[in-house]
Write a structure and sequence with these properties.
The complex is a heterotrimer of chains A (173), B (315) and C (434). Chain A has helices at residues 8-25, 42-55, 108-118, and strands at residues 2-7, 32-37, 63-66, 96-104, 125-133, 145-149, 157-161, 164-168. Chain A is an alpha/beta fold. The chains are: A alpha/beta (173), B alpha/beta (315), C alpha/beta (434).
Chain lengths: 173, 315, 434
């Protein structure tokens, strides 16, 4: 049984709100940078960056992508097939890096991402933006910016796209 | 248990998979901290029965960048205790808790024999005249990078030199053919293997006749011992017929590239300093070595090839 | 039926319901043996001990022209006793011991030692061969006359061939005067330096130094012509190539006193086996191509090849666990020869007995007591084998001290049930008796 919990419009508005919140939160001259986590967070990072540039066209906000598969903590439990290649071609030292992912769940992907970012340099701060927080954290990770809080069951399947967010219960459609 | 022992055993899909994995590793190597925890807790043992500082360091660096622990055994043949067989050595090291062996030996077949005596993965870093699969992967990756294409259909790879005794040649013939290249071998008859009729190659004894249609010129090293074994009368004659000099470089078509697995024998097969040539890929071959070997180790111990190994561990 | 333990004792032993196969053909008859000789052949014989030979062939015991017993010098691989036991299990009542021992069999002292050890083991007749050259070095002749006086009839430097043409000529002239046979391991060593396998497409891909066929054929040709010149009797050991067979065929047509042998492994295994890198397949001469195998089999069929000889070459496990180029060549052969031969040769049983018993006995100079028709008065050197019994080769069942056989795990057709040496059972129901 499927449920659309966010429509395309809901998604669009959430992205705009997040973009405003990110800009509001910036203090001081630290360089802001957006990093989307491959693969699910890439389109969202693109959209948030576009929104930020629309709100403040004079601000230069570099955009990058990070593949976390090499930093996962479950390597050795199942085979790892890396996703798309990371691309961070701006300096990370001293920057405020906002990690962007579509769904926040156990928190392990974000932990891997933080470790990954540290191999590029030492950011001044790392923040986290997600479209959906579905709960069931296994690590002490919390998002700074959330599109929607969505309590789910472990068996639920959550699909996120610009066209909307769909939750499927019990594997049936 | 999967191994990387020969290009034929790896197969086309395996070659492509490792080349693609290598691009990930190149990116990792470009970071400020070129290190990922992917192989944390794994141990990679280098078992080098032939001197090769460069290849051995390349593998060890690769292992360390993936956060694996390394063990090194450099065994020169004269110091191998006859009483302790190769099997004993392998089993002792395996008992110390090793996940992968990287082996180089002057005898063909050692990686296959070792696989029978250990549960660890075996990576062939060169066995006799037989195979040197990671070198072939480095070479294919370097060409992909330089020419900006994934497949080599329509391109001609010309390998020049002591094909008979070359594991690099054997591995490259397989790998480049798999990716669609035409392969031409150039050597005097005494430096070709007895019967190459079943290989996907063209053979020529005249280098000057094939240069104009060569897109990738691959020079092999000629060891000076070949002269005393009667394969060539003297090195000067060899250099005249098969050495790369400025004239021959000029005969290459525009866009052609030059490669050499190293180390070079100046004055024998290389009569010109390749660092003066813009189309030389020799430096890239060296620098890509670590990335390729990272891809190989990752694939065997954590990636797709590790699946059966992990299933074994879980059960 | 009598239990095995009782049959070793003295008395009249009868082999019941078997089929005698020898030069006269096949006959369904019982065979009685007593005091070391065949005493009666007939139907429904009675005796003190009855041995079941139903469905089996009763033939003169096999004679191996070519076995490496490793004693003296390499007793960790095999001893004369363990090698004899392996031979008995394989149906052999005599075998020619190759002289590449340490010290080599180029002196009467060593010859006598080997013969005595064979007698002490008492499992079959060990016939020592002598070296052609001192120390098998290929430089000076061994004391051939002295060794002949000590009972040697077959001389060879096996392990190596005699490289020097003049020396070989002299050896042949000398041998002709003595009436003995020279056996040659045909290999021109300048062409086979470092070689590990047959020179062919396979060795090209594997990047291994090859052993070209011509290195054998050149010496076969040379020795045939030298035999033509000198009139000596020459026997070719372990021939392996098609061209070698052709050369011998032509020599026989010319009436020259040339004989030849082939091994079971050269009749059954081809060079692609080496792609497994398993050193058990490394042998000298190497395994050859399918074309060579076909020619060897045809050579057996048409009589060009006189004998099946095992070239039984035991090596301890450690020695074979080295790289392909370092491992010593050689494989076991005594216990699997019959099973392999029946599986690959398209010959009738009479012919099989001829190449495994009668002709080798003649070449070894022991026809008075081995390879003889099973008739009254003949020495009781007899093998009883089941030509249809399938069995799988398992390392634990081998009597040899070593285990380097390529047939491990394979199913062969044809197995020895009983072997009798001088009337005494050395093997009963497949088990060694001593």
């Amino acid at each position: 049984m499927s449920n659309m919990v966010m429509s395309a419009d809901d998604v669009r508005r959430a992205i705009t709100r997040i973009a405003h919140e990110i800009l509001e939160r910036q203090h001081g001259p630290a360089q802001l940078a957006i990093v989307g986590l491959q693969r699910g967070g890439a389109w969202l990072a693109d959209a948030i960056t576009a929104a930020i540039r629309h709100i403040e066209p004079s601000t230069n906000v570099p955009l990058g992508y990070l593949d976390v598969s090499m930093h996962r903590d479950d390597i050795g439990l199942r085979p790892v097939v890396p996703g798309a290649i990371s691309r961070i071609d701006f300096p990370v030292d001293g920057a405020t890096v906002v990690l962007v992912d579509d769904v926040l769940y156990t928190g392990r992907t974000v932990r891997a991402a933080m470790e990954g970012i540290n191999t590029y340099g030492r950011p001044r701060a790392i923040q986290l933006a997600v479209l959906v927080d579905r709960g069931h954290r296994e690590l002490p990770i919390r998002p700074d910016y959330v599109g929607k809080n969505l309590p789910t069951n472990l068996v639920d399947d959550v699909r996120v796209a610009s066209e909307g967010v769909v939750v499927t219960r019990d594997g049936t459609t | 248990m999967k191994h990387l022992r020969s290009i034929d055993e790896l197969g086309h899909d395996g070659v492509v998979r490792l080349l693609e994995l290598t691009t990930h590793m190149v990116e990792i190597n470009s970071r400020q901290v070129p290190k990922v925890p992917a192989l944390r807790g794994r141990t990679v043992a280098s078992l080098f029965f032939e001197d090769s500082t460069r290849t051995r360091l390349s593998f060890e660096t690769a292992a360390k960048r993936l956060s694996a622990d390394t063990m090194t055994f450099s065994v020169s043949t004269s110091s191998v205790n006859k009483g302790e067989s190769l099997r004993d050595t392998v089993e002792t090291i395996t008992d110390m808790g090793v996940d992968a062996f990287v082996v180089r030996h002057k005898s063909t077949g050692i990686p296959w024999q070792i696989s029978d005596w250990t549960d660890a993965c075996v990576v062939n870093a060169g066995d006799g005249w037989h195979q040197h699969p990671t070198q072939a992967l480095v070479d294919c990756f370097t060409v992909r990078q330089a020419l900006g294409r994934d497949r080599f259909d329509g391109l001609t790879l010309t390998i020049v030199g002591d094909i008979k005794h070359s594991r690099v040649a054997r591995s490259n013939i397989s790998a480049f053919s798999m990716l669609g290249a035409n392969v031409v071998l150039v050597a005097p008859p005494t430096l070709l293997p007895p019967d190459v009729s079943h290989w996907p190659v063209e053979v020529s004894h005249r280098l000057d006749e094939v240069l104009h249609r060569t897109d990738i010129l691959y020079m092999l090293r000629l060891q000076s011992e070949r002269m005393s074994q009667g394969h060539v009368p003297n090195l000067r004659e060899y250099a005249e017929a098969f050495g790369l000099d400025a004239r021959r470089v000029g005969m290459l078509p525009p866009g052609a590239v030059l490669m050499h697995p190293g180390p070079m024998n100046r004055g024998v097969e290389m009569l010109i300093d390749p660092s003066t040539l813009t189309n030389s890929l020799i430096h890239q071959q060296v620098s890509n070595g670590v990335s390729v070997r990272m891809a190989v180790l990752f694939d065997l111990l954590a990636g797709e090839s590790s699946a059966s190994h992990l299933a074994q561990e879980a059960s | 039926m009598t239990r095995p333990a009782e049959v070793s004792a003295v008395g009249r032993v009868v082999l019941k319901d078997g089929t005698i196969v020898d030069s006269r053909g096949e006959q369904r008859l019982d065979v009685a043996m007593e005091n070391g000789v065949v005493t009666e052949v007939g139907i429904e014989l009675r005796g003190d001990r009855l041995v079941d030979a139903r469905g089996c062939v009763v033939a003169p015991g096999f004679v191996d022209l070519h076995a490496h017993l490793r004693e003296p010098g390499k007793e960790e691989a095999e001893t004369i006793e363990t090698g004899s036991r392996a031979g008995a299990k394989g149906g052999y009542t005599a075998l020619v011991a190759m002289p590449n021992t340490d010290p080599p069999q180029d002196s009467v002292a060593v010859i006598d030692f080997v013969r005595e050890q064979g007698k002490r083991a008492g499992l079959l007749e060990v016939v020592p061969s002598g070296c052609i050259t001192l120390g098998r070095q290929g430089e000076a002749l061994a004391p051939l006359a002295e060794l002949t006086a000590a009972g040697v009839r077959l001389f060879t430097d096996d392990g190596s061939g005699v490289q020097n043409e003049l020396l070989m000529r002299r050896a042949m002239e000398y041998a002709r005067g003595l009436g003995v046979t020279l056996a040659q391991h045909c290999e021109v060593t300048s062409l086979t330096k470092g070689a590990v396998m047959n020179e062919c497409q396979c060795c090209t891909s594997l990047g291994l130094p090859g052993w070209p066929s011509i290195a054998e054929e050149l010496m076969v040709f040379r020795d045939i012509e030298l035999a033509r010149l000198t009139g000596a009797r020459v026997h070719f050991l372990h021939l392996s190539t098609a061209r070698s067979v052709e050369l011998v065929r032509a020599a026989k047509r010319d009436g020259l006193p040339i004989t030849a042998e082939v091994t079971p492994h050269h009749l059954s295994l081809d060079d692609t086996r080496l792609t497994s890198f398993d050193t058990v397949f490394k042998v000298n001469p190497p395994l050859r191509s399918l074309g060579d195998i076909a020619a060897l089999r045809a050579g057996v069929r048409d009589g060009t090849i006189d004998a099946l000889a095992t070239d039984h070459a035991p090596h301890p496990r450690r020695d074979k666990e080295l790289s392909l180029d370092q491992a010593p060549p050689g494989m076991l052969g005594l216990e699997t020869a019959l099973g392999v031969a029946l599986g690959v040769l398209d010959v009738d049983l009479v012919h099989l007995v001829r190449i495994m018993s009668t002709q080798p006995a003649a070449i070894a100079g022991i026809s008075d007591r081995h390879g003889r028709d099973i008739e009254v008065g003949a020495p009781a050197n007899v093998v009883v084998f089941d030509p249809d019994l399938s069995w799988t080769v398992s390392p634990d069942s081998l009597s040899s001290k070593s285990r380097n056989t390529p047939y491990v795990g394979m199913t062969l057709r044809g197995k020895v049930r009983h072997t009798f040496f001088n009337g005494v059972a050395t093997v009963l129901d497949g088990d060694a008796q001593r």
